Amino acid sequence: MKKILDGMMSTMNAVKPPRMTALRELHEAETGGPFSILIGTILSARTKDENTAKVVRALFARYRNARELAGARLRDVERIIRPIGFYRVKARRIIEVAKIVDSEYGGVVPEDIDKLVGMPGVGRKTANCVLVYAFEKPAIPVDIHVHRISNRLGLVETKTPEETEQALMKLVPRRHWLRINDTFVMYGQNICKPISPMCGVCQIRAECLFYRNNVPAGDPPSPPPPAKPAGRRRSGGRASPVAAGPQPVRSSRPRRRKSA
Ligand code: SF4
Fold first, then answer.
1. Each residue of 182-199: pLDDT tens digit?
2. Mutate to test the pocket of ligand 1, among 151, 155, 192, 213 (most ligand atoms within 8 A of CB)
3. Which of 56, 81, 123, 166 is most buried, by the most CB atoms less than 10 A from its CB?
């Protein structure tokens, strides 16, 4: 797994150093405590990272802790978080969560996954994000990027993020857990995108089941130039199915790795 994580970072730095994820930004911020990370994670669902970070900063400039947010007026919170998706639902949800943190946990976010998932709108991914980014406790938050890339690499063969989390926990040594979400999310946003993954520049091609299954037999795995839009061909040449994006996987699947 270290080889994969290092290879991802090296690829991203070679192509274009990525911006931090919203949660890493909150983690690094001087004001970023566990409560802001919990609220930031709830707000980040289906929202661009840059919007999340901005909105969380604005929210915490107005409400500094769980007690203050618990006492906020719904319409004031809605106005502040309006730039993000589903802001009405999320405004109600974060006030409810603030009330629970304030009244049941004395204003302190619990470090316990069972207590976290007991809060409204907090699933395993959110709870694991809080453990990783707020408390630096080993956990593997699995979002769409972690799920997709783990399957493409052939680390797991799963249908849902929940299955991926369980499979990765069995496969990956705990010492690597803290790096997985951050690195895979940045890689999924910048290189191993859902459509047209940039396999041509990817430095972990040799580790990738998707790549191996899509390299035409006999072709050396030399990298094409950085990704072209899906389906585009160079004149006189053959479009690489790998650079062009996800393709049907061939039947001659190599064996999956046993450990990472
Ligand atoms: S699918 Fe392509 S970009 Fe993604 S990990 Fe495999 S080789 Fe790299």
1. 999 999 999 999 998 999
2. 192
3. 56
